[in-house]
Amino acid sequence: MEAIRKITVALAGNPNSGKTTIFNNLTGSRQHVGNYAGVTIEKKEGECSHRGVDIRIVDLPGSYSLTAYSPEEVVARRFILEDRPDVVVCVIDASNLERNLYLAVQFMELEVPLVLNFNMMDISEARGDRLDVARLSETLGVPIVPTVGHRRQGMSALLDCVVEAGRKKKAGIVPTYSPDLEQALRLIQSRVNGNLKGQSLPSRWLAIKLLEKDPEFARQWNGSAVMEEAKLQSARLEDKLEESAETLLAQERYDFISRTCEAAVHRESPKETLSDKADALLTHRVYGIPIFLAAMFTVFWATFNLSSLPCEWIESGIGRLAATVSSFWPAGADSPLRSLLVDGIIGGVGSVIVFLPNVIVLFLAIGLLEDSGYMPRAAFIMDRLMHRIGLHGKSSIPLLLGFGCSVPAIMATRTLENRRDRLTTMLIAPLMSCGARLPIYALIIPAFFAVQWQAPLLWSIYLIGIVLAILSAKLLKSTLFKGAAAPFVMELPPYRIPRLRDTILHVWERCAMYLRKAGTVILTISILLWALTTFPQQESRALAQAELTEAAGLVEEPADSLSNSYAGRIGRFLEPVLRPMGFDWKIGTALLGAVAAKEVFVAQMGIVYAAGEDEAPLRQRLQQNYSPLVGFCIMLFCLISAPCMATVAVTWRESGSFYWALLQFAGLTVLAYILTTAVYQVGVRAGIGI
Amino acid sequence: MNSRPLNTAREGEKFCLNRIGGNRDLRARLASLGLIPGTELMVIRRNLSGSFIVSVGDGRLALGQEMARCLWVS
User: Fold this and answer.
1) Distance separating alpha carbons of residues A334 and A552, to the nearest angstrom
2) Which residue numbers of B have CB closer than 8 Å to A's CBs?
3) Does the beta-carbon distance from B24 to A417 stay under 8 Å?
4) If pLDDT is split at 50, 70 and 90, which confidence band does A354 have?
5) Is the predicted pLDDT of residue A553 greater than 50, yes or no?
6) pTM of this prediction?
7) Does residue A186 share a domain with residue A101?
8) At the fourth CATH level, which superfamily is domain B4-73?
9) How many CB atoms lie within 10 A of CB A7?
10) How many CB pairs under 8 A join A and B?
């Protein structure tokens, strides 16, 4: 037998079958796992080596079937059909066996070399189920490996089986169905055989797909004799059995599964599970919504209150660092290098890093919601409200993720079946105030507002975002994306107690990402903005300036060197536009920088106010320079305005069109401008907060 | 057999699904979630807006109100 050195393995399975945990175990990667459908939305690759064979493993998005109903199912199906992996491992949640086998049966129809991985065996055993794995394996003609993914049990056996299957390249048995269906399939198949069009697909599988009126294949074979035969047969079946062909096929698959399981699976009669008890409260018709709101309140309360102390430590640490670096230069000396280090880098990046504890707590809280399985419940509870705005409950998962970061939120819209719903959700997602905007609120709110107003203000900012998102969704759904939402159906996986390792890993990854962003994008922009704020230097212009001052008879103000810098010039150029919102040129430059990443706003305010001689803390400087009304307007504008570059890029990619990204960018910016101007003007006239 | 749409059901009732409305895509989706004619299901929760949680085999599914209207049970 020829020795094989390298095989490609596709990891397929239902959403929530623990596929990604298996993938992480096998490849040592740290892909994000969660407890709801659609965590893995893109295929991910990893490698490992077992008994001298290099194994390339592709983790496919979870799918319930190969009908290619939603975008992630399309990705999974396309990979299997086009890349033809050597082995398909179908991960099956053993505690929900029959439903999960539905996908496995479709792989058997496709006649690919298959390994079944019965995962979550611990749950099924704890429930008292007895699975005769050997017998099932024999009946199906497919190797079956039981595993417990989160305890890493059975991984080596799984790899043994995969290598063996890669060597043999043998498919399991082909499931057979009722005589009526078999006859129809045979007739279509005989036509297919003569017309394979160079396809390497099994003719029986093609016959099944054509009988099911699979849109992709129906289009491909449209007008051919084969398609005519398929139409004829499906009409004949529908006549005889009074059920559509695709429903018949689904029924037959489940019949096949229950026949197979009958002898090999013994299960206790279902009892009310702990999960059901939890659901009795958490999805309660009356208490469900208050509990959801309380949960969200706790998330944001914790984000601010648990992290205030560590934030202060970091802040004082950064202050000391700045003082230490400054002390390398003799007092009063004007050195551009000192200014770059202290004002630009420490002032800019430092003011962003201060808020790391907030980000940690926020992502910890979101991570716990994701891992516990509460997310799909939130979708269920929110269904009513979402329905009112023309979407359905499922849209609330991307929107909740949006409180963390808009990028994963927009990617999570892939679980929405309907393109109109998906685009609407994508476009409004940035209105969910993300973690990068937190530092702005955390800087501004304590600077301007008394303690008793701080929490309500923060709430009002988040609420404004939510209300605007609702209104925008309603607007979009009644203009650009008219049409009913796709009917809402979603699996509710059992609750799981989040495992410490996963949660810490998840939070660690978000922290690393935040720090990486601080060290790359924010650092670069900080240096750029520092340079724009610092140059041209006063001396080089002193002469011209003196002449100008003399001619105009003006007294030079201390901030003049700032306002004459490049940033000052850009800012002052923008100032007429910014004035109606109460913003000066300094805020203007910070807002420009914030387009790269929202945190840059904080960094640039740090730079602008570090550049002066006054060593007072940033918040105090802000308080001296702006009114509380302006403070509020800054938050309002940052909440609504142009999403950051990463969000624009991901909207572009996910919507498949530059125009949607542009619409999102421009629409939100215009909305921000109008609202902020209105608030400022009303505020000034009413004399509130000036 | 007198068939009625699921949205008339109450919590705790058990049913046999006998007909599914809606288009091909929807039926395919439901089939892959285990909902086909003949499936037995139990209503676990019905909230005020007419959304449902039903148990199907070992799984739990959340269904929106239009979804529930498409499922005929008895």
Assistant:
1) 29
2) 20, 22, 24-34, 36-38, 44-49, 51, 53, 55-67, 70
3) no
4) confident
5) no
6) 0.82
7) no
8) Ferrous iron transport protein A (FeoA) (2.30.30.90)
9) 21
10) 140
